[in-house]
Amino acid sequence: MGLRQGGVLFHALPKGEVGAPVRCRSPSFDLGLRIRIMKRAWGWLPAITVTAGLLACGGGASSGDAGGGSGDDGSGGGGSGASYDYSGIVTAPSMDVAMLQSPSMLEQALSFVVPSAAATVSGLQPVSQATVELVDLDTDQVYGTAVTDSSGTYELSGTAEPAGNLVLRVQGSNTMRAPAASAAVDVNPVTETVVRSMVDAVAAGEHAYADYVPAQLAASMTYLLDQDVDLSDTSTIEDAISKYEHAVADLDTVVDDATIAANSGFGGTYGVLGVATEMFALTGRTGKSDNGSVSVGTYGLSIAFGDDKLTPTGSSEFRELGLSAADGGVTVSRESSTNDESGSLSYTRSGNTFYAGGSFGLTSADGEVIVADTGGAEQTTLSSGEDTIVRDRNLLIGFRQPSAGAPTLSGHYHLIGLGSGFYWSAGSTGDNDYLEGLLLSNIGGLDISNGTATLDVDESETDVPLSITDKLVHQTNTSSFSAPIMAAADGSVVLSVGGDNISGQASADGDLIAFKELGDEGSLVQSQLYLAVRKGSGCSASTIAGSYRTIGYGPTFDTDKKLMNVSGSHGALEISSGTASYSGTARDLDLAISTSTDGGETHFSTSAANHGSSGSAEVSVASDCTVMATMGGEQMTGAVLPDGSMMVLVAANDSSAKGARDITVALRR
């Protein structure tokens, strides 16, 4: 399904591609997206299992048990005389296990520590016979002690309740600490990194320890402990901290969230749309080729946020391309599915950030907008020894449903969009099928008057061969058309184009509109997401000056490596005097197609990895609130709301062998 004007394709121009079949593609304005709430997209089910395991052994806490008593308001903790119980597990890299253990009387006399046998094993290991202290960071006063058992577990009865200035400390020749933000506190290199971030902020005069609200700090800690950063190749605490900080570049901002008052305006029911990509592989098949699949899809949901639970309702729709092995290549099959999406899930909040089973979400300062980076990576080994691998990444955006009737949609908007998908064609008898990746980015305008929307869209398209090594094809297209548009009392929007109804969602004030559509035309599937941002006047550099949190989504195809990559990211953005400084964390998921040296077998390989990034860009703002950011050779274009509360930017980056698209949503802190 594609947007058409009177059944005529906007820019359906056939084109010949080197080494590829001639095809005709329908208009680009095929808005689209996907998420698998309670399935894969949020990553909720596997992440709930991980989080439950952390809590069972003393990891982070949910909002129901994160902190208590007088410490929950962030005030400095002090000995109250009342008993408060803490418990958890102490773990460290192999070389530093012995450095944290409390020596026996004989060892003290001999002035050395004999490492345990486990200390020779690479990776994080339990630290037995370690003294754990409940300590005040301001005064170094100790409010309780305990010793870990053989599994590294401790139980400590202290005389101070959770507070921003309290930590659990394990100290030997080396030291590790963890914020005493709840009753369940693990101590490991990640928690030591969190404490160092707090200590640095206090030393710089940015905060006092009392600013860190225990319940929010516990939420931030749970999220940071859920990050999939492999520390197995680190041997010391400092090595582990360095690797973690490199992989999670916005750690300081996540910790700093615990000092921001939770948004009291957040809550209610939100209409939510989004975009996603999923990849699957069945690998490890001895003497056989692998099987795999790639999917794009859309979701239209309403999500009700209570005090500590969120409840989604709605449906999802997917198009999956099955990739079966052929001699030295692949054959492609197509499947469709529609799913009911419902359930309930606990979530926690820290400042204007919310966490649900490893997923990362942001809320606007007024609570009217939510944006989330979700997804996961699952791997299962079958009894046959084969592995099934599922990886997905998703961008969600939602607006609180209006309380006073349908939003008024009128005036002039910037239009920013991103999409990705796949085209394939059947090979001749005995030949493999042809498969290519499709990337789209759009910048344009949307004018609404008297129930009619007029759209002018400039599109950048890149087609990337995946089943063969060949050249990328780039082209730009321009579209212009008008169509009826209507908003309902719940903020849902319908744009009627040539017999097709394009679904959308508008903010209550009508300043923002999101559209999504799943394009499905024979041998072409694609998902797209568009955001319309109301134009303003008199915007300037001061409009965007300040601090933002960001969430991004970006698909990439590489013809040389026959590689598909999708990345979800979150970070911190500081803008001042036309310069934007960014630090963030991205989660990359890959699916590669390869052929054995004899050409007889086809294999799929996947990977998932966190990596941090930082840098600066020059940013300019036009009076109509158009925004342009340039970093090195990369350029992002988009728009900001006139009050500076939200920005949307999109980038297209293509080379001779690789095509990439990125969209970033920024909400003011």
Q: Please, could you describe this protein's structure?
A:
Among the domains are: 168 residues, no CATH class; 132 residues, Lipocalin, CATH 2.40.128. Helices cover 11% and strands 51% of the residues. It is built from 8 helices and 36 strands. Strands 11, 12, 13, 14, 15, 16, 17, 18, 19 and 20 form a 10-stranded antiparallel beta sheet that branches. A hairpin with an 8-residue loop joins strand 21 and strand 22.
Short key terms for the protein model shown above:
669 residues, mainly beta, Lipocalin, ten-stranded antiparallel β-sheet, eight-stranded antiparallel barrel, 8 helices, 36 strands, 11% helix, 51% strand, disordered N terminus
How can the largest sheet be summarized?
Answer: 10 strands, antiparallel
Quaternary form: single chain
What class do helices, strands and sheet pairing give?
mainly beta
| Euclidean distance between termini CA atoms | 38 Å
Proportion of β residues? over 45%
Shape descriptor reads globular
GO molecular function: carboxypeptidase activity
Keywords: Carboxypeptidase, Hydrolase, Protease
Protein name: Carboxypeptidase regulatory-like domain-containing protein
Organism: Solimonas terrae
